[in-house]
Specification:
about 475 residues; OB fold (Dihydrolipoamide Acetyltransferase, E2P); BirA Bifunctional Protein, domain 2; 8-stranded mixed beta sheet; 5-stranded mixed beta barrel; RNA-binding
Length: about 475
RNA sequence: GGGUCGCUAGCUCAAUUGGCAGAGCAACGGACUCUUAAUCCGUAGGUUCAGGGUUCGAUUCCCUGGCGACCCA
């Protein structure tokens, strides 16, 4: 613990700024060396570096828009003002008033008339030159990461850009942003394990949502035709470079269209996001250039598996030959449990062999019914649904469905999921009778999709881990 | 769940074969009237992640645990 020697008697309540650093640079950047502008300004920020020089001294002040030099002269400040300035240390938050000028060495500066300590930094700041490299410190003390590392700030801004791009894209197309519950009496809408919590006065368990899907569909039943929710959802599963227990995604639903229409919508949205973030559609994925301007590829799950492993599993699938499929799975390094439905085995093979090889944007069209209990039956492939996953950079970023709207079929799917759960699959969907009742009032045909915003940020920013794009990723408490 | 690696001052990192725990930056005190990773002199700062073991002696070797990273399932 460092000595906390400076205990100010009060922390000021506000400081009247007249401008910020980037505005100063824009207005006065062309001042001549040694010239004084004659203009007084008041700025505020954090002291980044200090350079004492006897009866003059320099400091760099950093605000959200940039960094600028403060120039203190004893002749201007007097003994007391100079002493106050020299008492400032790296990390202190100060207000600075003075005249804009440029030093003889050509550094745009504010020649101080007065400084005000607004909030002291009581601890030593990280090394100015090396910053913070320990990722654990960067995640646990993200404020230090933001102060030291421009990439961390870029991440925050990029997420804001993605969110606003999504909102304007969908709002422009007539979608309404809605908010549905995070606390669910039944955790539905995704094949995932939920977090459980408890409501004391109702004396009932509630689940943090794993997806907003079933509530958004209730809105379609209620007559809304285009809705979306930028939502935080929660899945009680392993933590990895691609999984955080809480994560952000978009879900959107549009009545009277099918998944072909929705694929086109998602394709446009992904381009809009890339354009907003990167200013173009060329993407560098670990050295591979991907051009998002090209039409996204479409292939079936069988084609994707065949392309990566050379095995055509169509015949095996059509013959429902469990042993043949299981041996294909073992060949792909996938473990098969006795009770696993064939569709799950096929999906696991796809994930293990093909998914990570799909670098260019690819719609994998058609998912087995067993692992897609909320999508309509496929029009032509037996045992499949109209469920597409958009894969980019080897990562699934967007599931897209022709939404299942037949209550009897939905009930049958829930029953199938219940059998999976009974045989040990804790991720299987729990039947939601309230949702079935809603469906029985009639839901229009609809296309819907999800888009993992954390994952798309990772891909577009080239982040190696999801923790790089989540401000405060879930970690065990430190020691 | 399995494997590998990491954890030393606020930060970035050293410490020879197991032999006095150090440097730079930051902090604190001093010098210096155009510096910009300022410079110079000085001061202070440590449960070496925790606990145990081996040893005359452990940051170092061994065991258990914690946290994190990467890879695999």
């Amino acid at each position: 613990m460092p000595a906390m020697t400076r205990e100010p008697t009060s922390y000021p309540y506000r400081f009247e700024r007249t401008t910020d650093v980037s505005s100063l640079r824009a207005r006065f950047g062309s001042l001549e060396e040694g010239a004084e502008s004659g203009e007084s300004v008041a700025i505020a920020g954090r002291i980044a570096t200090v350079r004492g020089q006897g009866k003059v001294a320099f400091a760099d002040l950093k605000d959200a828009t940039g960094r600028i030099q403060l120039f203190a002269r004893q002749d201007d400040l007097g003994d007391e003002g100079m002493a106050e300035f020299k008492a400032l240390g790296v990390g202190d938050i100060v207000g600075a008033e003075g005249e804009v000028m440029k030093t003889r060495r050509g550094e745009l500066s504010v020649k101080l008339k007065r400084t005000t300590l607004l909030a002291p930094c009581l601890r030593p700041m990280p090394d100015q030159w090396h910053g913070i490299t320990n990722v654990e410190v960067r995640y646990r003390q993200r404020y230090l990461d933001l102060l030291m590392n421009p990439d961390a700030v870029r991440m925050v801004e990029a997420r804001a850009q993605v969110n606003s791009t999504i909102r304007s894209f969908l709002n422009d197309r007539g979608f309404s942003e809605v908010e549905t519950p995070l606390l669910h009496p039944i955790a539905g809408g995704a094949v995932a394990r939920p977090f459980v919590t408890h409501h004391n006065s109702l004396d009932m368990d509630l689940y943090l949502r794993v997806a907003p899907e079933l509530y958004l569909k209730r809105l379609l039943i209620g007559g809304m035709e285009k809705v979306y929710e930028l939502n935080r959802s929660f899945r009680n599963e392993g933590v990895s470079a691609r999984h955080n227990p809480e994560f952000t995604m978009l879900e959107a639903y549009e009545a009277y269209v099918d998944y072909d229409d929705t694929m086109a919508l998602v394709e446009s949205l992904v381009r809009a996001i890339a354009e907003a973030l990167l200013g173009g559609l060329q993407l560098d994925i670990d050295g591979t250039v991907v051009d998002l301007a090209q039409p996204f590829k479409r292939m079936s799950m069988f084609e994707a598996i065949e392309a990566s492993s050379g095995h055509d599993l169509r015949g095996v699938w059509e013959s429902r030959d469990r042993n043949a499929l299981a041996s294909a799975a073992r060949a792909a390094g996938v473990g098969v449990e006795d009770g696993s439905p064939l569709g799950k085995v096929l999906g696991d093979i796809f994930e293990a062999t093909a998914e990570k090889r799909l670098i260019e944007p690819t719609f994998v069209v058609g998912f087995p019914k067993d692992i897609s209990p909320l999508a309509k039956d496929h029009r032509s492939i037996e045992g499949f649904t109209e469920h597409t996953d958009l894969v980019l950079a080897g990562i699934e970023i967007a599931p897209i469905y022709s939404e299942l709207n037949d209550p009897a079929e939905q009930r049958a799917r829930f029953e199938q999921q219940a059998r999976s759960r009974a045989s040990g699959d804790l991720e299987a969907l729990v039947a939601d009778d309230d949702f079935l009742e809603a469906l029985s009032y009639g839901m229009p045909p609809a296309g819907g999709f999800g888009l993992g915003t954390d994952r798309i940020l990772m891909i577009l920013l080239g982040a190696p881990s999801i923790r790089e794009v989540i401000l405060f990723p879930t970690l065990k408490p430190g020691v």
